[in-house]
Design brief:
- The structure is a single chain.
- Helices cover 57% and strands 3% of the residues.
- By secondary structure, it is an all-alpha fold.
- The protein has a three-stranded antiparallel sheet, with no helix packed on it.
- A hairpin with a 2-residue loop joins strand 2 and strand 3.
- Helix 5 (132-140) crosses helix 6 (145-155), helix 6 crosses helix 14 (308-330) and helix 11 runs parallel beside helix 13 (290-301).
- The radius of gyration is 21 Å and the shape is globular.
- Bound molecules: acetyl coenzyme *A.
- Acetyl coenzyme *A binds next to helix 13.
- The site of acetyl coenzyme *A has 21 residues, from helix 13.
């Protein structure tokens, strides 16, 4: 008798050295460190740490990643006329396709960041000596680069989520980095995975206009709608990244009264939403997930709602690559089974 787990819930697909998502205790551990212990790392340090483990202060990746940005920018600029017709995440997929095949992971990381920036500012030129986050923020005309750094560190890696699993499935066929990353971008596009933060802001906007927020939540849940930014497949407590990002919002709000006001409102709404969810689904803990405060932070930094998923991808690419390397070095072809429940031929 084959055992079926809908959505592969609770199924363990292998061993990994990269991260532990502890859904019961609400801990996220990356190569032996709590997420909050890594909060001061640079993007480049985190890349090396996720890919290789160990000390992060070895040879810096700042210059090689900067050179990669300079290398990929002209190739992406040529394709920019197509970007206007594509959703930002589709443009990132196209950006990967514009590059020659490369074994240098920095090329893929650079391509996603530069593609994001050029879509906003086609004339922008990368600077090889700058660090990745400051350079992308400058090119893209964003504010609060340290908020962006904190965001990308926070979302860089998160166990066997849908897009990482997709990347590993494709890497397991030895299809190469471009194919694996491109597939991961596709998986990230759906609202149940990476596509929620835009709708979180839509929800907050509606709530701001609602005369009675508690009644608004009850009505939405009673009509079968999901509250964006709440619930998680693995966490049975509040997603630890929600707090890291709430604190990042708090820090940025010291320089932005607009964000400070938005944050106070969102914190009040979070309490009402989680009470409404507890009353609606008493048997299942539905708590705040990473997308809730992501929405506020990315808005304050200057991104458009439609860009949020693409921004997430530019950080998560570090984790995808870590898993692709691990899959290539240790993994077998991923090929599960499915239980056939269709009809059989008449003759058996
Ligand atoms: N609002 C209302 N009800 C919810 C929510 C929610 N946010 N989340 C789950 N539920 C309910 C479901 O309707 C379901 O009820 P049912 O058993 O009566 O059908 C029950 O809780 C279990 O839900 P599942 O979909 O089985 O839970 P799963 O583990 O598959 O879903 C998910 C996790 C997709 C994140 C879900 O909680 C959700 O849709 N949340 C809203 C979208 C969201 O915030 N997505 C971002 C996730 S974080 C990330 O991936 C980066």
């Amino acid at each position: 008798m084959q055992v079926v787990s809908s959505g592969l819930e609770g199924v363990c697909v292998g061993d990994s050295h990269i991260s532990l998502v502890d859904g019961q205790a609400g801990r996220l551990i990356l190569r032996g460190f709590h997420l909050h212990q890594l909060g001061e790392k640079s993007f480049e340090e985190l890349a090396r740490f996720l890919w290789e483990g160990g000390a992060c202060d070895e040879e810096s990746l700042v210059q090689p990643l900067g050179e990669a940005r300079v290398r990929v920018a002209p190739l992406l600029r040529e394709a920019l006329p197509l970007a206007a017709r594509l959703a930002p995440i589709e443009w990132l997929r196209l950006a990967l396709d514009r590059l020659p095949d490369s074994q240098n992971p920095l090329d893929w990381v650079a391509a996603l960041g530069v593609a994001l920036a050029l879509r906003r500012n086609p004339q922008a030129q990368p600077e090889a000596k700058a660090d990745h986050v400051s350079d992308i923020a400058r090119m893209a005309g964003l504010q609060f680069p340290d908020g962006l750094r904190q965001y990308w560190i926070c979302v860089a890696e998160h166990g066997m989520n849908a897009s990482t699993f997709t990347a590993r499935v494709v890497a397991s066929t030895r299809a190469g980095h471009r194919a694996a990353l491109s597939a991961a971008l596709g998986a990230l596009q759906g609202p149940l995975h990476g596509g929620a933060p835009g709708p979180v802001l839509d929800m907050l906007d509606e709530l701001q206009r609602a005369p009675d927020a508690a009644a608004w939540f009850q009505h939405k849940l009673a009509s079968g709608e999901r509250l964006m930014g709440f619930g998680h497949r693995v966490y049975r407590v509040r997603d630890p990244r929600a707090e890291v990002l709430r604190l990042a919002c708090q820090k940025v709000s010291e320089q932005s009264s607009e964000l400070a006001e938005r944050l106070r409102f969102a914190e009040r709404m979070e309490k009402l939403a989680t009470s409404a969810l507890a009353a609606h689904k008493p048997g299942r803990v539905l708590q705040t997930n990473v997308e809730y405060y992501t929405a506020l932070l990315l808005e304050a930094i200057g991104f458009q709602r439609e860009e949020f998923t693409a921004v997430f991808a530019c950080g998560r690419v570090l984790g995808w690559l870590a898993h692709i390397f691990e899959q290539e070095s240790e993994g077998r072809l991923i090929r599960p089974e499915v239980r056939y429940v269709g009809p059989m031929p008449d003759q058996g």
